[in-house]
């Protein structure tokens, strides 16, 4: 992956030398040309086309912002209702993520969306104990975390 | 014993990208400097031929699953359609239009209808060259 980025930057520099214009715009044009070439020859590379990960990071960001707005609205409803009908609870969420880095990212994303909070980890660090303000159905809550954040993180790192 | 040309593979992986970048540079340089669709297309074809030379046909066909006959057809179609734009506006066939535009990041840029026409030539040249070479290469009899 690092090699691909290096090759892309190298192609952008060659592009600048060919055009004999040493500006940021020209570098960007060269970078885009290099990116296109890498995309066309993506099956030729030993690793995945690296820009796929950049897109995946962007998707994760959009998903996080979407969830943030959604759960903020939910929290506002709960806070403003006179007698809230909520069932707080702590659920254990097993995760398939491998490295500590990914698990930390997942825990942070869960904590940053209001209503849920990562409290602790199991001994091997692969099960998260999540406190949620409203969990009528345990399985559903776990499945939701798996389908949204865990899947998006896996797309970035695999 | 079957030996693998490791050095050739590694160098080809890098050099092919540089040749392709040069061919795209030539394609865009064509308007005001030496270059253009024909030489750019030949340069692209030569980069692909280099890939075919250092790897086997099966691998590269998997990497680049293009149908070169269709590339020739789409290049011709693009060139003819570009030529017909003038006819729709009551001007002669192949009349070219150009103007200067202020694009967001690129600044003042000249956009002309000669560029899509050139792209058509580029596609025909790439498709034709590779079709000829691959047809000869695949002929076992």
Uncertain spans of chain A, ≥5 residues at pLDDT below 50?
Answer: none
Average pLDDT score of chain B: 85
Mean pLDDT of chain A: 84
Shape of chain B: flat
End-to-end separation of chain A: 12 Å
Distance between the termini of chain B: 26 Å
The tally of structural domains of chain B comes to: 1
Largest sheet of chain B: 2 strands, antiparallel
Strand count of chain A: 3
How many structural domains are formed by the residues of chain A?
A: 2
Number-wise, the strands of chain B total 2
The portion of residues assigned to helices of chain A is: 55-70%
**Biggest sheet descriptor of chain A:** 3 strands, antiparallel
The most extensive interface between chains reads: A-B, 18 and 17 residues
Strand order of the largest sheet of chain B: 1-2
- Which strand-content bin applies to the residues of chain B? 5-15%
Q: H/E series of chain A, N to C?
A: HHHEHEEH
How large is the radius of gyration of chain B?
Answer: 18 Å
Proportion in β-strands of chain A: 5-15%
Number of helices of chain A: 5
Subcellular location (chain B): Cell membrane
Organism (chain B): Salipaludibacillus agaradhaerens (Bacillus agaradhaerens)
Keywords (chain B): Cell membrane, Membrane, Transmembrane, Transmembrane helix
InterPro entries (chain B): CPA3_antiporter_subunitB, MnhB
Could you walk me through the main structural features you see in this protein, from its secondary elements to its overall organization?
The complex is a heterodimer of chains A (158) and B (141). Chain A has helices spanning 2-19, 24-40, 51-80, 100-112, 138-157; strands spanning 89-94, 116-121, 127-132. Chain A is mainly α. Chain A has two domains: 2-45, no CATH class; 51-157, no CATH class. In chain A, strands 1-3-2 form a three-stranded antiparallel sheet, covered by helices on one side. The mean pLDDT of chain A is 84. Chain B has one domain (6-138). Helix content of chain B is 67%, strand content 9%. Chain B has five helices and two strands; from the N terminus they run ααααββα. A two-stranded antiparallel ribbon of chain B has the order 1-2. The radius of gyration of chain B is 18 Å and the shape is flat. Chain A binds chain B through residues 7, 11, 14-15, 18-19, 25, 28-30, 33-34, 37-38, 40-41, 43-44, and chain B through 13-14, 16-18, 20-22, 24-25, 51, 62-64, 105-107.
